[in-house]
Design brief:
five-stranded antiparallel beta sheet; 1 helix; 576 residues; 1% helix; single chain; mainly beta; 35 strands; elongated
Length: 576
């Protein structure tokens, strides 16, 4: 049963027993292995002394050594007519002194076995075991012979995990994409076998470094599979990953083994699966991050006479591809209910915002990944253009769907989630907003993988904010500019304290979305101490319109942003 796990064998010859007058035969015990002498120990005569030999057995045994933690034990047993035979004396042989492989012949003391402790009384207080005789043994340990070199018909790659590249599993660890990755290419549909073995191919199993249990993932590498478009194709027709490492995945890309994401974790996991022609990425993993060690990845065509034709396996990134540049930041989710929805409400303004600046001369491939080390929430992120002139102040105006550069498809309860395949323009600023589906704060990481240089900085500036409460009632609910009494609507003056260029955002919020709403911003011709309401003539004067909401809509909030030049001397009037 334990033949394959034995460290070696121990040859024991019981040559002679002295004393121990009640013994009938001997046992040799190691773990679950027991050997019994065939000869019977002769009873000692009444007038004999303990120095006289009790028996000359000269019996030898070979017993497998399964663990260095368990001693060898020679037991002297007395037969009983009823019940189990009784242990009358024993000798324990530590294994450590025997590992040099030299035969040792000597006398070992046979002592009275200690009585088992009574429940609740603690261990026995005997200071020294009682000696009842001695046994002469010849003992020699022989280590297990190394197995013949393993032969393998397939494609094999030797690699290693370092403390930095042992990233853990896809399900539990946001650092999974740090693991070594290998691009598997098939030119036809076939059953493919995959196996991960610890250590190196030349090392014997017992000499290999024992890590915790291992497994591997197989993910689709290309952008289109089974008619399902998983990623937007690049405008220039290039590959999404372009020979680089895969840093993001969707569940649709996972090739399952027996309905699981990966084969069962073990010392040498393996699996066989029918795969279509195409490109796949194989990711060997340890069950927890930070476990350095070497491994061998084997891949073969199952059932084929030639198990390698039409199969290719290469480490990622490919030799002709540039590796991702990696920028990593971290922070904490705001923990505000409703903050994950940028297209509705104002709670999203509590989210952290990061300025992503592209500084290259060419468009860049970019992947954005939001991770959560503790896997507490569902997460996602948004990417929008960062307006000129904001100068480190956060995005606060209402977000329209057409403004989005990218967003995650939905919030997902994963260790890492994000967007891939972005093509960002050079010398352009973007704002990245990670979001959480929970109303509790918690840590997050934000990783930027790019084909060129980018920088990430937190957006921490502040806006000066003023709020005015108004109401439409009776005559002041005067409708849109298409109605003749539009000037009867509430009018709000916007006056600057100093003449300098500044950015301005106006947001109109209403209690319900039953009617389309909007506003117009006018220049006020009169800049005296007492501002007068705009007249019917003035609100119809196109020359006085400074800014307006692009399109009136039945929404709870509408907003627009504009720049106030330093040269503008007259006040502004907002008419909702």
């Amino acid at each position: 049963m334990f033949k394959d796990t034995a460290l070696g064998t121990c040859s024991i010859s019981i040559e002679e027993v002295r004393g121990c007058a009640k013994a009938d035969y001997c046992n040799v015990v190691h773990g679950f292995e027991v050997r019994r002498t065939a000869g019977t120990i002769e009873r000692q005569k009444k007038d004999a002394t303990d120095a006289q030999p009790l028996a000359k057995l000269n019996e030898s045994f070979t017993i497998p050594i399964l663990s260095l933690q368990a001693d060898l034990e020679v037991q002297c047993m007395a037969r009983r007519l009823l019940g189990k035979d009784k242990l009358v004396a024993h000798a324990k042989l530590p294994l450590a002194p025997l590992l040099d492989g030299v035969q040792q012949r000597q006398w070992w003391p046979l002592t009275k076995p200690a009585k088992p402790a009574k429940p609740g009384k603690g261990p026995s207080k005997e200071a020294k075991p009682e000696q009842r005789g001695e046994v002469r043994l010849a003992v020699q340990f022989t280590p297990k012979a190394p197995p013949p070199a393993r032969t393998f018909n397939g494609v094999s790659v030797e690699a290693e995990w370092t403390a930095e590249t042992s990233g853990g599993t896809l399900m539990q660890h946001a650092s999974w994409n740090a693991n070594p990755q290998f691009l598997l290419r098939l030119d036809r549909r076939h059953r493919v076998g995959v196996r991960v073995v610890q250590g190196t191919r030349a090392a014997a199993p017992e000499a290999r470094q024992q890590l915790t249990t291992l497994s591997f993932y197989v993910l689709r590498y290309g952008p289109h599979w089974d008619g399902q478009k998983l990623h937007e194709p690049r405008a220039d027709g290039g590959s999404l990953w372009a020979g680089r490492r895969k840093v993001l995945f969707s569940e649709a890309e996972i090739v399952k083994f027996d309905d699981f994401w990966a084969p069962v974790f073990s010392a040498d996991p393996s699996g066989i699966r029918e795969l279509d022609a195409g490109e796949y990425v194989v990711i060997p993993v340890t069950d927890t991050p930070g476990q350095p060690g070497r491994f061998v990845l084997d891949v073969w065509l199952d059932g084929a006479a030639d198990k390698t034709t039409g199969l290719r396996l290469d480490p990622l990134p490919l030799p002709d591809a540039s590796e991702w540049l990696h920028e990593a930041v971290s922070g904490e989710f705001c923990g505000v209910a409703g903050a994950a929805d940028l297209l509705n409400g104002t709670a999203w303004r509590n989210n952290p915002q990061w300025l992503l600046r592209v500084g290259d001369e060419q468009p860049l491939d970019v992947c954005l990944v939001v991770g959560q080390p503790e896997k507490l929430f569902s997460t996602g992120l948004y990417v929008l253009p960062y307006p000129l002139g904001y100068q480190g102040r956060p995005l606060v105006q209402c977000v329209r769907p057409e403004q989005l550069v990218a967003k995650t498809d939905r919030l997902r309860f994963l260790t890492s989630h994000g967007v891939a395949g972005l093509r960002l323009q050079p010398r352009t600023d973007y704002v990245v907003i990670p979001v959480s589906g929970s109303d509790k704060p918690g840590p997050y990481t934000l990783d930027v993988f790019s084909s060129g240089a980018v920088t990430m900085k937190p957006i921490s500036g502040e806006w000066h904010c003023s709020t005015v409460d108004c109401a439409w009632a009776n005559d002041s609910a005067a409708g849109s500019p298409n109605h003749g009494k539009f000037a009867s609507n509430p009018q709000i003056a916007l006056v600057r304290s100093e003449a300098r260029r500044s950015e301005c955002i106006v947001e109109l919020s209403v209690q319900d979305a039953n009617h389309a709403v909007g506003y117009i911003v006018y220049r006020h011709e009169n800049s005296g101490d007492q501002l007068q309401r705009l007249s019917e003539r003035e609100v119809n004067d196109e020359e006085l319109i400074f800014n307006r909401v692009p399109g009136w809509a039945a929404e709870l909030r509408v907003s627009t942003a504009f720049t106030l030049p330093a040269s503008l001397e007259t006040p502004l009037v907002i008419v909702p």
